[in-house]
Amino acid sequence: MRQTVRTEFPHRVTVHPHEWIPMSDGSRLAARLWMPEGAEEAPVPAVFEYVPYRKNDELALRDGPMHSYFAGHGYAAVRVDTRGAGDSDGILEDEYLPLEQADGVEIIEWLAAQPWCSGKVGIIGKSWGGFNSLQIATHRPEALRAVLSVASTDDRYADDVHYMGGCVLAWTALPWASTMLAYNARPPDPEVVGEQWRQMWFERMEKSPPFIEAWMSHQRRDDFWKQGSVCEDYSAITCPVYMVGGWSDAYRNAILRFLEHYPGPCKGLIGPWAHLYPHDGVPGPAIGFLQEAVRWWDCWLKDEDNGIMDEPKLRCWLGEARRPAPTYAHWPGAWVDLEGWPSRFVSSQVLELRTDGTLRRAEETSGAGGDATELRIRGAESVALDAGNWGGYGGPADCPPDQRADDGLSLCFETPPLSSPARILGFPIARLELAADRPLALVVARLCDVWPDGASTLMSQGLLNLTHRRSHEDPEMLEPGRAYVVDVQLNAIAYALPAGHRLRLAVSPTYWPWAWPSPEPVTLGVFTRGSSVLFLPVLEASVGGEPPPHFALAERGPSPPHSPTGMSEEHQRRMCRDVASGRVLIEQTSRSPEPLVLLESGIEYREGERDVFRIVEGEPLSASVTCEREMEISRGSWRTTVRTSSSMSSTADSFQLVNAVEGYEDGRRVFVKTWHRNVPRDHV
């Protein structure tokens, strides 16, 4: 895979470091513009990205290569900081609020009205920007002609950092809320906003709420989560949509769902990547994503008949079996082209869970495995110590290592060695007949590739809060000892299993620190009377694909000058188990070894974080998460630091949340605020 920084384009590019975009309520949003020369005389379409991650700090290194590339190909590329972020006015009170969407609509109207704009606008975004691009599209602004949404979700409750299957995501909910608490407390740039910078900074520290309080106050799928979930009505969007993501990222399920349900023009692309734009994709191969994006814009914003919509509706990477490792630079495999989703080339293979611990095709199980039996397992508190990151960036400890330790703490069913290869593509579903001995319980199902030498690679997993077995909106307590049949949908995967490997389904009532534990230790029973089965989506062997030539070269534009030129972060994850006390600890840290200096503006930026997950074996109420963040922004004699701390623990009846923000100016603390909140447990 070749990668190159391109400096010559069809159009020369001019960068405008700062532009104010006025809102109807008198507020102003801060933007950076990359303009093709001559746009004032010959107007061009506009492409914009809209996120709270600050155009003037470290994200400038990601923005510059992408948006200068678009401008070089004849688009006005615009990066806007959301209200309450960077130099924009206001306070950011939560994710994806109606005000954020309304501001997005006004941005589109403003862009379309500029003399350098042709009146046609597209939105691109990854993660937050991918979410709000879909949300803004539901408002149908007249000038919006296309969306390119990367690593996003259509369902804020089912597929984001807060909950999975109705389970609280301990691994991500508080850490992400803690990050946003620190992000929102950072000051604006005095050279942009002037003397009011300090007043704006103090207002942000005082008024920006800890998002975790709202998230934990809505533990079921209510109107809080439905707002901004475009799956509520896909047809509210009327413009063409390109959904993009990676199998190594948490945000991949929405791509298949969107292709299945969206009635308008759309495409899907899923590569091997983590939570990154595909031209920076890790694990590789990265692709020529910016070339693909320009083709998308050329088709819908310049009305060019370039054939992109005649190509396969879904193109995805089918990864080869990979040995378990905490990181991968490259994931071997091949592209597969499909006419859409669902696909007639994918069929469901049914495997029965047997009393003897085997996983066999239904037609092979006659007389095998003995009589129907309830197989029981008492959950260990720390079953997900080797689960990897929920949505990593391809870092040194993002991928799940060997699963044998976690498998040993689970109830496992596995196939005999495969007599022929199997290509899995889609959503595996574990239909389980089970019973729990407590009224509150969860279940996790993991699918692993077991190598001939015993190594176990995690392919996918799914969680279900069993009180949500009928509905995420109206949960019901379990009747202890009663058998229920539930469907646990695992995350979508594409994985080629070789002959000689085995497929393992592991089931457990615990998954700490991914899922917040039930308040009491749970013994889970799984019945093997034929109603416990695995539905495995299998792709026909004949289906292949041929990627377009530009996929082979990951182009990008130049980055803004900065120091050091080879920026990196130091990451560390350590695990500690005290055998005598049963205490288990996971600590993750990340810190920039030296500040990033943006040479054009003189901004120096550095950040660090620390997350600690604690639990005691046999004591689920001992679970706790603590998070610390520190962010330094300075220029010359102007030096600021924001520090935050967040913690979350629980009793049998409630969650305890504590958050604090401190602000430092020239090394002296000038602000401190602490929030305390107890939130009742709601069927969790």
Characterize the structure shown.
- The chain is of the alpha+beta class and 684 residues long.
- It has 3 domains: 2-156 and 227-343, Rossmann fold (3-Layer(aba) Sandwich); 346-539, Galactose-binding domain-like (Jelly Rolls, Sandwich); 563-680.
- Helices cover 15% and strands 38% of the residues.
- The protein contains 11 helices and 36 strands.
- Strands 2, 3, 4, 5, 6, 7, 10, 11, 12, 13, 18 and 23 form a 12-stranded mixed sheet that branches. Strands 28, 29, 30, 31, 32, 33, 34, 35 and 36 form a 9-stranded antiparallel sheet that branches. Strands 14, 15, 16, 19, 22, 25 and 26 form a 7-stranded antiparallel sheet that branches.
- Helix 10 links the parallel strand 11 and strand 12.
- Helix 2 (98-113) packs across helix 3.
- The longest helix is centred in the first third of the chain and has 16 residues, at 98-113.
- The two termini are 46 Å apart.
Summarize this, please?
The chain is of the alpha+beta class. It has 3 domains: 272 residues, Alpha/Beta hydrolase fold, catalytic domain (Rossmann fold); 194 residues, Jelly Rolls, CATH 2.60.120.260; 118 residues. It contains 11 helices and 36 strands.
